[in-house]
UniProtKB/TrEMBL annotation:
Gene Ontology molecular function: any one: nucleic acid binding
Domain of life, source organism: Bacteria
All copies of domain Integrase catalytic, residue ranges: 1-152
PANTHER family for the chain: BLR2054 PROTEIN, LOW CALCIUM RESPONSE LOCUS PROTEIN T
PROSITE patterns hit by this protein: INTEGRASE
Gene3D superfamilies xref list: Ribonuclease H-like superfamily/Ribonuclease H (3.30.420.10)
Protein name: Transposase
InterPro entries assigned: Integrase_cat-core, RNaseH-like_sf, RNaseH_sf
GO biological process, one term: DNA integration
Amino acid sequence: MDFVSDKLFDDQPFRILTIVDCHTREALATSAKTNFRAYQVVEELDRIIRLRGKPRSIRVDNGPEFAGRLLDQWAYLNKIELDFSRPGKPSDNAYIEAFNSRIRQECLNTAWFLSMADARQRINDWRIDYNQHRPHSALGNLTPNAFAEQLYPTRKFA
């Protein structure tokens, strides 16, 4: 879990909360907002848990949205370990760093966002394409969704 920053056409900054499943390489969230509060990060995690179930741990950086009391309490109540990366060590969270680089190169650097709604739509379209149409060599040349379906065939019934 990490953030990527960008700007709309009028230089209004916004941030994208990126959440990637390190095992399946699925992009679980690319939520764009002008600013994020800790409760919004928790809401996004709750949404993902409703769809996929609870993870054992979540790897995060040391940003204020992640290092605060609210996320710590949420993790404790949900029995989820928060694995913080060491400051200045992006290699501690290599999957999300690689994903963030890819979203920056392939989506953010190639688009001129006219509004937050436009940004959300284009970023989500990119995430869907990434998950459903892009094979990964690390996954035996399967897409992240296809790989996850092989691992978790019962997820469709849950």
